[in-house]
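C-alpha cells in:
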C-alpha cells in the first residue's frame, strides 16, 4: 500500500494539577501522525513533557501519566509507534516475545503480555500466541487492525 507521507501533523493536549508536594504540575501531551522521521512511513506517537514551574521534570513516553491526567488519550496509547504499514516490527517483535528467551543466564520464558502489546492484540489468548502459525495469524489480522488504526487516527482530526 502506498501512503502519502505527511509532515508535520500533531495535536496538543494538556492537564494542570497539584502533586503530592503541593506543587503545580503541567503535563503537555503531543499526539502526532506524520513522517517526521522521513522514512516514508507515517507513524503515530503519543508523548509528553511534565513541568513543575518552568522546569521540565520528565519527557517521552509518559503513558501512565497521560492515561491518568489526560484520560481521553488512553485509548490511543496502544497505537504508539504504529505506522500505516502496521505496528513497529509487527511480526518480529511479537514472535520474539512469544519465543522463550534467556537473560543473564536465567530462564525468563515467554512474555505474552509484551507479545500482546507488540501485536496490538490485547484479547489474544495464550493459545493464539503460542500455537504454531502465529506469523500467519498476525498477517491475517493486519488489514482489520489497520482499519481500526485509521479510524483512531482520523477520530483525532488527523489525516491518515
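Residues out:
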Amino acid at each position: 500500500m502506498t501512503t502519502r507521507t505527511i509532515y508535520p501533523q500533531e495535536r496538543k493536549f494538556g492537564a494542570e494539577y497539584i502533586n503530592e508536594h503541593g506543587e503545580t504540575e503541567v503535563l503537555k501531551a503531543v499526539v502526532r501522525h506524520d513522517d517526521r522521521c522521513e522514512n516514508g512511513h507515517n507513524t503515530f506517537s503519543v508523548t509528553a513533557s511534565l513541568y513543575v514551574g518552568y522546569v521540565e521534570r520528565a519527557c517521552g513516553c509518559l503513558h501512565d501519566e497521560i492515561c491518568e491526567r489526560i484520560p481521553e488519550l488512553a485509548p490511543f496509547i496502544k497505537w504508539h509507534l504504529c505506522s500505516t504499514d502496521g505496528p513497529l516490527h509487527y511480526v518480529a517483535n511479537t514472535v520474539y516475545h512469544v519465543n522463550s528467551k534467556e537473560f543473564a543466564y536465567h530462564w525468563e520464558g515467554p512474555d505474552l503480555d509484551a507479545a500482546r502489546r507488540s501485536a496490538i492484540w490485547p484479547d489474544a489468548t495464550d493459545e493464539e500466541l503460542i500455537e504454531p502459525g502465529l506469523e500467519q495469524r498476525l498477517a491475517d489480522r493486519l488489514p482489520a487492525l489497520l482499519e481500526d488504526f485509521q479510524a483512531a487516527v482520523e477520530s483525532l482530526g488527523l489525516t491518515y
